[in-house]
Amino acid sequence: MKKAIFLSITLTLSLMTAAQAPQKTAPAAQQSSAQTEESKIFTVVEEAPEFPGGLEALYQFLAANIKYPGGPDDCVSGKVFVSFVIEKDGTVSDAKVVRKLHPAFDAEALRVVKLMPKWEPGRQDGKPVRVQFNLPINFNLN
Questions:
Q1: What is the pTM of this model?
Q2: In degrees rounded to 5, what are phi and psi of residue 110?
Q3: What number of other Cβ atoms are within 10 A of residue 95's Cβ?
Q4: 121, 89 in Cβ contact below 8 A?
Q5: Could you tell me which residues come within 8 angstroms of residue 131 by beta carbon, excluding any fewer than 6 positions away?
Q6: What is the pLDDT of residues 101-132, one digit of tens each?
Q7: Are strands 41-42 and 127-139 parallel, antiparallel or unpaired?
Q8: In the 8-state DSSP scheme, what is residue 44?
Q9: How far apart (Å, rounded) are the C-alpha atoms in residues 14 and 131?
Q10: Measured between alpha carbons, how far is 92 from 115 in angstroms, rounded to an integer?
Q11: Enclosing H/E stretch for 86
């Protein structure tokens, strides 16, 4: 008798940071500050990045691309948390596992996150910015 394999996928956006007050700086420090602002990764933005087609499309993408590691006799289940950055151009970068489950499952979650197409970038003050996301992916056998 074949066992059915089901994959449950959950998405959680982690968008938290403290607001920063503008600071007056000297011209040399302003250049350094501009470079820092250019590479700053936000966790809270006015307009969050969006997967092409929205949240439902993200779930469909993950479900279509994630392959349950191992065979039907493997009974590992749980969550892998992957953190990544949506860049100003919408690409996914800096993907890493921040909460592990099992090496094979961690690698599979990371592989699929790296396959994601470009997102609509997040915006702060109307300008595209880098935004960090945390994505928990559930692996369950039912």
A1: 0.73
A2: -65, -40
A3: 18
A4: yes
A5: 15, 41, 42, 43, 45, 48, 49, 85, 86, 121, 122
A6: 999 999 999 999 999 999 999 999 999 999 99
A7: parallel
A8: S
A9: 10
A10: 9
A11: strand 78-86
pLDDT tens digits for range 77-105:
899 999 999 999 999 999 999 999 999 99
**Distances in whole angstroms, Cα of residue 45 to Cα of each of 22, 42, 96, 122, 130:** 16, 7, 21, 7, 9
Integer CA distances (angstroms), 20 to 44, 46, 120, in order: 12, 14, 25
Cα distance between residue 43 and residue 130, in whole Å: 9
Residue 58 in contact with residue 11, Cβ under 8 Å? yes
User: By the 8 A CB rule, do 7 and 138 touch?
Assistant: yes
Q: Do the Cβ atoms of 108 and 69 come closer than 8 Å?
A: yes
CATH number of 39-139: 3.30.1150
* Residue that has been written with the tokens 């369950």 in this structure: 140
